[in-house]
Amino acid sequence: MGIEIFYFLIFPGLLFSGIIGGLISWADRKITARVQFRKGPPILQPLYDFVKLLAKETIIPLRGSVTTFILAPVFALFGAVISAVFILLPVLGIETGFAGDIIVIIYLLNIPSFTYIIGALASGNPLAAVGASREMKLILSYEMPFLLVLISIIIKSGMTIRLSEIVAYQAANGAFIGSLSGIIGFIAIMMCIQAKMGLVPFDMAEGEGEICDGIIIEFSGSILAFFKLTKYIMFFALPALVAGLFFGGLSLSGINILWSVLKVLAVVLLITLVRNTNPRVRIEQAMKFFWIWMNLFAVISIVLALMGL
Amino acid sequence: MGKKTIVPIGPYHPLLEEPEFFKLYCDGETVVDMEWETGYNHRGIEKICESKTFEQVFFVVERICGICSTSHPFAYANAVESIGGVQIPVRAKLIRSIVGELERIHSHLLWVGLAGHFLGYNTVFMWAWKYREPVLDMFEIITGNRNNYAMFTIGGVRRDIDETKATELLKVLDDVKKKTDLLVGAVMDDPVIHARLKGVGTLTAKDIHDFGAVGPTARASGVDIDVRRDDPYAAYDMVNWKVITTPEGDVFAKAKVRLLEMYESISIIKQCLTLLQKETPGDIKAKVKEIPEGIGIGHAEAPRGEVFHFVKSDGGNSPVRHKIRAPSYNCITTFRRSCIGGTISDAAIATAAVDPCYCCTERMVQVYDYHSGKHMMNAAELIKFSQQKTEELRKKL
Q: In this predicted complex, what is the ipTM?
């Protein structure tokens, strides 16, 4: 029991993934700033943001459903922490996890998105409602290619649905990114992660210039801080998952730490570059993009995986 | 049709720098109807102008708009000079045109940046505003201010552009031209921007005539109007340039017109500088003793379209009536045509596409009874009316 609590609260759960996620989000902001000829924030800025929000007043909308509104960010954080633990334990090679954990991870990764929707709808704000409806459509569009890419990975790793075995298979036979189906699947999953993170070009649920931050418009103070922490953790968990699925996992021993950092940073850099070189698309364009193009990519990846490429 | 939801844009919203309220009636994501409310920012500019002398009014009208702060003095100067029949020196004409075109460049760069921001493309926003900086620095060298230049006066301009300033300006222009090439490449060839802007907020030439829209908004719909060519003022008939038009009428066309107009502006400034170097240094200001009784109409092509000023003089030292019409006043009426039928995302960029400047167009309206000539409502009644309305709304809650 003691070790599980340690896993969830300290390492690799809340504390560890929160700190690393904060650092990653700083790196993202710094790169963005440099691309845009700005100076960028200091390295502790994510911490300052979080602490400042905790100290701020929390305003609860009168018209909203109060309990749901307050609980939504809490559940978002739970979902993020649990999925981070289930991803990081096998990917870092600490524990082997259990058979079928990759399916659990698929479900857990959806919890933050669903809590955004529930929280937004509970706030009773029309702009939040628009944001929530967009987020729903977005989930419907990116889930399908995400699943298909995972199926392609499962086929490639000899029909195992255990994340630690997928990592181990790559350690024995080379990382999946080196194969043709791996590259195509990687492109598709990167787009899905962009949408899961709610970053440009798929940030229409927040859409600053259109619906004033949509789904999180009514959140303030400490409950907004919870959402912020959720974002930080997801910013670490998702690139770590990609590293586990395509780059052969991460490791914390000796010189391998450097490689692990580089793998995660490479994924983060890709995400940052995509978000800085594209405008926000409309929601129906995003749906078309995922349903037609990304599904096509994922299916091609499956076919190639079946052919052994 | 299902239940309509009102999605508010404004009065305070990241889309608008100014207070302005759009009610989008939406069915899902589709905008089925829209209303807008102005009047949050009435400043009484016209009345203030009537209390200033003719010379002082320049500094007031400059502050109507922080972005087109030369267009209003331009139109006002044209109006006052038409009352007095003042002939301004050639040198002053050229300098006026140079400042006017520099302003167009900085305003269009500002718009490109803002449009990028509204699309969530913050890199374009930051880049365009960075490239705008040298233009503002150039303003500081020429006029002494980065904004609100205080350059114009009745009968000419207040500062000369000498040889060193001219060479400096030419250098900056070459730099701006390179940067414009880069921006044009980034905007015109980006497939995602095409997907986002083409066919959005389309206005036909008929719509433009119906609503009386002006400036780049009209030119992007193929309506070939430009005050600089149709009724030349300052030095615009002394140089070669062409009016940019394109027939599509969507937001992409408006972006295209603005980007290409920047090249024309650069070319106009260069020609003006060449003419300026040929002129012998001399007067930049005609001597004007008094403004006689009469009315004057002046207009100028601001970056957003035609600015219109009407000035009435009774022979004294200040205008007795000064009427101002900013271009946004004509353009914002097209919103009903460009936004209804599109999605909320489209409405956001379609409203931004006319480059609206709400504070400049705010005017107060008093309601008179047509037959008796009496006020229908005075201030006290309006306040009472507003209190009643608030009370009703409170009861509903």
A: 0.83
